[in-house]
């Protein structure tokens, strides 16, 4: 194995770990989660189910939709596209196990640290900003290595290719869809919003900015080390 491949694998794995940490910390602030995981968080919170397992189920649905889109609208090698889709399944299994591990290690800030800075609104907002930065860094590192996309990114790319729209526009539309579904589920099943809050808005804005800033300072250097 060449040095470049080692760097590439390291950056990819580290990116996924940082992404899982950022997503989990986001959920622990109690200020609203990022749109892409809001549906899974809402369902797991209302029915007291394992967040990692529900996220795995949601990612599996994303992968199935990706495969259907690729079968009906593929422009390149269908076999290569479907293989990349299928490989997202073991990736999702591993990634959601890390969600569970971090979820067990990080307590809910508002309840565990009530009466302290970490449990206050200002403290939780501080940790939310850290979570958003970590999410952006993790997403950038894993995506830049161009190995296997996270299903949340994979479905956006597949929809973008299918409808001929930019990835950025498609991402915004998909985020709005996830938020809408989460709002409907929360109101219908519990009578109030679950997982939607100021953190959701900040995640929509902040994750993209974090990716852009991180790539501005590291993109060329990381890609050179990874041989990309």
Task: Provide structural commentary.
The chain is mainly α and 228 residues long. It has one domain (3-226). The chain contains 9 helices and no strands. The longest helix is centred in the last third of the chain and has 29 residues, at 198-226. The radius of gyration is 18 Å and the shape is globular. The mean pLDDT is 93. Keywords: Membrane, Transmembrane, Transmembrane helix. Pfam families: DUF6198. The chain crosses the membrane at residues 9-26, 46-65, 86-106, 112-137, 196-214.
Element-by-element helix/strand order? HHHHHHHHH
Contiguous uncertain segments of 5+ residues: none
Largest sheet descriptor? none
Q: Into which percentage range does the β-strand content fall? A: under 5%
Q: Gyration radius, to the nearest Å?
A: 18 Å
Count of discrete domains: 1
Distance between the termini: 15 Å
Oligomer status: single chain
What is the typical, i.e. mean, pLDDT?
Answer: 93
What secondary-structure arrangement, pairings included, does this model have?
Blueprint: H1 3-28, H2 35-46, H3 51-73, H4 78-105, H5 109-112, H6 121-144, H7 151-163, H8 167-190, H9 198-226
Short description:
The protein has helices at residues 3-28, 35-46, 51-73, 78-105, 109-112, 121-144, 151-163, 167-190, 198-226. The chain has 228 residues and is mostly helical.
Describe this protein with a few key phrases.
228 residues; mainly alpha; 9 helices; 0% strand
